[in-house]
Design goal:
This protein has 4 helices and 6 strands. The protein is an alpha/beta fold and 131 residues long. It has a 6-stranded mixed sheet, with helices on both faces.
Length: 131
């Protein structure tokens, strides 16, 4: 569960594409703005869901795109999910997650603020710091 927050043009989709590459997505991860959810597979049979909540108004809208079902798969360890504009559906999100804020510094620079919630993600961040 990775939440990507930030203003328009901050680089959320670019970061999602890089995460998809690292995860082994067979296709290029791109913006699902007009379809809300894109699904990608990898060679190991895993699924990566990329959700764009920009046009969702609230948690009720999240139900209309089957977000609870996608989150259920994530919780069971069957898939991974990236959510752009997670603040719009925060009430539907599990408490354990990785939250990444992309903040404009200047035209070609961003600051990345990462917050881990839950043991799994706290360990992940600690391991990244050690690397």
């Amino acid at each position: 569960m990775i939440c990507l927050a930030g203003e328009l043009g901050a680089g959320k989709t670019t970061l999602a594409s890089g995460i998809g590459d690292g995860w082994g997505a067979r296709e290029v991860v791109n913006s699902p703005t007009f379809v809300f959810v894109n699904e990608y597979g990898n060679a190991g049979g895993g699924k990566l869901y990329h959700v764009d909540a920009y046009r969702l108004r609230d948690a009720t809208d999240a139900e209309s795109i089957a977000l609870p079902e996608l989150l259920s798969e994530v919780n069971e360890g069957q898939s991974a999910i990236l959510i752009e504009w997670p603040e719009r559906v925060a009430d539907q999100l599990p408490p354990q997650r990785l939250w990444i804020d992309l903040v404009w510094v200047e035209e070609s620079a961003r600051r990345i603020e990462v917050t881990a919630s839950g043991t799994r993600y706290e360990v992940l961040i600690e391991n990244l710091r050690k690397m």
